[in-house]
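Whiteboard transcription, Tuesday session. T.W. wrote the structure tokens on the left side:
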């Protein structure tokens, strides 16, 4: 007697259609992009610095930045006196004033080899960036420090 031959069926691999999953992913992405409000004036709480590099302030151009509604208040010294305040009507004018001051100080004092920017802890990063980008055009190394602004300071 001969053994009975059984017909073997080819096993079909199950198809997994991922098109609906991709559609849902893109719908969620679009939803979150449209529903999210980006606040450019928000200030970030940064942790305390554990490691840092000290720098000599005697050989530096100083800028102090205090946050304000539209334009930051920028001073050309850490004393923040009214005489050292850079006044400007627009962002472009403020950039030009910062760059001009930095260039003139560097030309008048060749021993200056760095730029120090002091920013109040509640100053929005956009306003600090406005000052640092203008000051950096001198080509000197840039150091940024966060300061605590006391009630009487302005």
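and on the right, the sequence the group agreed on:
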């Amino acid at each position: 007697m001969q053994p009975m031959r059984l017909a073997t069926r080819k096993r079909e691999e199950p198809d997994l259609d991922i098109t609906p999953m991709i559609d849902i992913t893109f719908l969620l992405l679009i939803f979150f992009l449209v529903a999210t409000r980006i606040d450019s004036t928000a200030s970030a709480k940064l942790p305390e610095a554990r490691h840092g590099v000290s720098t000599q302030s005697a050989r530096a151009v100083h800028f102090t930045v205090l946050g304000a509604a539209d334009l930051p208040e920028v001073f050309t010294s850490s004393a923040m006196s009214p005489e050292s305040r850079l006044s400007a009507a627009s962002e472009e004018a403020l950039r030009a004033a910062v760059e001009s001051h930095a260039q003139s100080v560097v030309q008048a004092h060749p021993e200056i080899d760095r730029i120090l920017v002091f920013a109040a802890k509640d100053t929005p990063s956009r306003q600090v960036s406005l000052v640092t980008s203008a000051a950096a055009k001198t080509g000197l190394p840039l150091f940024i420090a966060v300061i605590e602004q006391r009630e009487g300071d302005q």
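Someone added at the bottom: Residues 150-154 have pLDDT under 50 and may be disordered.
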